Amino acid sequence: MIKAPFEMEKISDEEYVLNMGPQHPSTHGVLRIVLKLDGEVVSGLYPDVGYIHSSVEKMCENKKFEMITPYTDRLDYLSAVNYNWAYVAAVEKLMAIQVPERAEYMRVMLAELNRIMSHLLWYSAFGMDVGALTPIFYAFREREEVIDMVEGMTGGRLTHHAFRIGGFKNDLQKDFLPRLKKFLLKFEDRISEYEALLINNVILTARTKGVGILDKAKAINYGVTGPTLRGSNCAIDLRKNAPYSVYPKFDFKVCTGKNGDTWDRLKVRMDEMRESAKILKQAMEMIPAGEFCAKVPRIIKPAPGEVYTMVESARGEFGVYMVSDGTEKPYRIKFRSPSFSNLSVLKEITIGAKIADVIAIMGSLDLVIPEIDR
Amino acid sequence: MNFQEILEKIKSKHEVLESKEDMGVLNAYIAPANIAKVAAFLKDEMQFDQLNFITAVDLPANNVLEVVYRFFSYATADTVVLRVKLDRAKASVGTISGVFRTADWHERETSEMFGVTFLNHPDPNRLILPDGIVAPLLKDYKNQDMTPLPKA
Question: Were both Cys, which of A53, A65, A241, B99 would link to A373 (CB 3.0–4.6 Å)?
């Protein structure tokens, strides 16, 4: 537990210090925010992280390459597929393994379903944070269908683990594509329903427009990525800016907001789900037949060297930096997680806001704590 | 820009101690005193606007602790890695949080995980670890409370 710098100084009679967390429901995990308040207005803020640090990076140094993949999907349990992807892509790059085209399409499909799943959970949780209890029942209706599809493919409902070094363990389930087709038929209408329910609601609009404004230059300087950055009118998406896998073959646009306020960050996520559905529709048509896994040696022993691979996860840039010394275990692994940098900007956009706005602003950043603490 | 062009451009303004190519990416070794100047040069004149991460790699065989800075340019999709070699016993390097604000937290994490001191850091408090755990990611770290199970 770290003392905030302003806890140690003398605070004026008008001000007081309030702890939000570590067990506050709106922090969605174990995160403590120390607030200095002047009446209802926030005049100081200090995030205290590390409550669930588990030293994943040190553990990975003592595991063989193929044993590390399940650790990555536990970092961000909501966007597990993307995290697996960054890791296996790093090993594949070091070993120069060519992943079969069918596997690449399967990866894109799972990653986009995962993005939809993550955004739907964020939508439900955000609604509850700001006091709207109805949206969760609508969003979980579709989320359940997505989870069922991914569960059939990966065997897990939360920490999906299907990616292997070189491709997949098994091919797509027989009923996966028909189910996906059926799901996509109605999904875009459902997104409009969500928007009517929560995002365009008059009360929510009043609470979020003009609140927590993050400008473009500041966002980039703080290393903010993902929908949070795109809300600040910044068309940066690693699927376009540093294309990986078969993403260049798809037609989709990068969704951006205008003013960089809380409402724009909400809207960007809703638009992104539409784009994900668009990618899924194209992938369904384009997926070729063939192998689903490359020929991978039984013992994974990459050549010495180092590599950094990054993917656009539901929260932003997730990267794996890996140093190999030519043995069966990595010499050093570093996980660059998006929420880590996204949280660091919270202080900049919250000071001067009301205490009730802190919850709306923090919800709009879509934080997942295990990936911050690692 | 390719590896050679980036190297030439940095060399024209700043000293590069040594350099290597790894997976097509330039790794440039910089003197610890120059790191903030080179980072500012990369940001202002070469469009490297994103600092991906800062971390360290421990190399006890050479008694070296390397601090690694990775930069990415959204405009040109180029990557460059700066590295600083430090003495393991008294590792210290200047902060670049004045150039990239995101370096603030990354440096605090590197500092507690590897025992590197970042000079003139605006907030040198611990970030993730509690007090009492010193530099756990060093290769020779031993914890008194944890002993490995005997091998059968």
Answer: A53
- From chain A, the residues in CB contact with B130 under 8 A are 1, 50
Overall average pLDDT of the A250-278 stretch: 90
Please judge whether B22 and A319 are an interchain contact, meaning their C-beta atoms are less than 8 angstroms apart: no
Q: Which of B113, B91, B130 is nearest to A335 (CA)?
A: B113
Domain B3-88: CATH superfamily is NADH:ubiquinone oxidoreductase Nqo5 subunit (3.30.460.80)
Q: How far apart are CA A147 and CA A158, in angstroms?
A: 8
Interface size between A and B, measured as CB pairs under 8 A? 76
- Residues of A with Cβ-Cβ distance to B136 under 8 angstroms: 55, 58
Contact indicator for A266, A211 with CB cutoff of 8 Å: no
Q: Where are the alpha helices (DSSP H) in chain A?
A: 5-8, 56-61, 65-75, 80-95, 101-129, 135-154, 176-194, 202-208, 216-221, 227-230, 238-241, 262-286, 338-344, 346-350, 355-365, 369-373
- Greater confidence (A21 vs B120) lies with B120
- Determine the Cα–Cα distance for residues B107 and A216; give it in Å rounded to an integer: 23
**Using N-to-C axis directions, what is the helix angle for A101-129 and A80-95, rounded to 10°?**
150
Chain B residues in contact with A1 by the CB 8 A cut-off are 130
* Gap between the Cα atoms of B135 and A99, Å rounded: 38
**Residues A296, A300: Cα–Cα separation, whole Å:** 8
* Cα A373 versus chain centre, distance: 15
Residue A90: pLDDT over 70: yes
Q: Is the ipTM beyond the 0.95 threshold?
A: no
Tens-digit pLDDT profile for residues B42-70: 888 888 888 999 999 999 888 899 999 99
Query: Distance (Å, rounded) from C-alpha B111 to C-alpha B117?
Result: 6
- For residue range A310-336, what is the model confidence (pLDDT) as tens digits? 999 988 899 999 999 888 899 999 999
